[in-house]
Amino acid sequence: MFSLKRQGDFRLQLTRTLTTPGRHPVELYLFTPHETTFSTRTLTEEQFFHSALVHRFRLLGLPTQDRASKRDTSFSLLSPHYEILHGAWFFQYQASLERLRQQYQSKPSAEPLARALRLSQNFAQRLRKAEPKGSNQSRYFRQLDIYFSWLAEQFLLESMVLEGYDDLDDELKLAVQEFLQQERRYRADRDYLGDFKGPPTRVWNRMSLYQRLLEYPVVLRQKIIELGAGTRKLVKAGSTMLIMSLFTYFLFNVRDASQKLSLALLVGIALIYAVRDLLRDDLIDTVTRWLRKGKPRWRLRLLMPYTHKLMAQQLVWLDYRKLSELSKAVREHSGKWATNEERQIVCYRSKLVLDKAALSQDEIQERLILDFEPLCALIQASHQQLFEWKEEEGQPPFVQAHAIEKQHDYNLLVVCRQPGEEAPIAQRWTLRLSTSGIVRCENKPVVWPESPPQRRWWWRA
User: Fold this and answer.
1) What residues does each domain of the chain span?
2) What is the percent of the chain where pLDDT is above 90?
């Protein structure tokens, strides 16, 4: 199952942890409303893949019960093993905090808060028990130590401002305050206070930069290979051969009929070349798309950071389809508010092949980030107003004007299947977008039909 998190005004992040080797297929369907002008002319499939969609994988380390038996600490203090190991530890801690934040449901409870405090204390003790001596490792340790202290403080402060925090146990609240005071004293002793000073926006941007630097050793490198280039070249060569053969046949027939080179013949030859140049690109694109229908468009090789060892391979499909081209199960979950059959639907499909050796030292976190800023840019600004008659005590009646903000409703459906399981898992969210970003995101229950049992070759029809 994917967990959803908002990132800023325009981005949504879907995350899950991969612990089982094998094939991990993911299908994502983004149903656009009938009001939008979304099409291949406004945003091509290649532009959507490279600008509005980010599919990344990073190392999380092993769970606590498996780490002691499977990790050899003899080389853990050497670069890049130190950065990979501690980065994996930290992002596993960060993923745990995100899961605890989702348990809050806008109201803090004692158990998630106590667990978050315990996780922060344990990670601080593990990180700070032995400071490295190397220059590169010391720089990474300082950035990780600062970002961890800030992240833990932000999580606890966010919990303190939620409604219902005052009703928690006094002992737990006192432990939270003691941890925060201890972190402030630690920053002063380590000379970290300069990184926490400045306007809020500047501090936030600085910590975001630290996060990107910390992610570098644990994010799997992607080598993108665009498929279909050979098919396009063959189609281009075949179309050129066909057009030139017809043109040569036409010239020979005209020469046999008349030995004179007339003006009409020259105009005819020019028109043939003009029609060829006009239709050639569209013809090549249409034939290439028809030949590669249903085939992947990109192949990605996921490489280990620093060592560039191959960890996994991924095949990616992305195209725009009509509602009638989708399966029955997908159409039933497209949303009842959508009535336009001609609208474009973004269909993204990924198949990750993960070897067992890739999970021997780490679990892998899968992140799927959607950037809705290009879609929000398609929403036209509205200048309409809604007028309301207001009557208040002690004041004369008056007319109040309300500005209307135009909004579009989208439907997001994600279908995934775990290795060894025949029944897929589906999740659905309804999104409301405006010119300023994501207005609302709600999770909707999905009753997905079970997959029929696969027929074997020895079964009789």
Assistant:
1) 1-57+297-386+401-452, 81-216, 228-291
2) 23
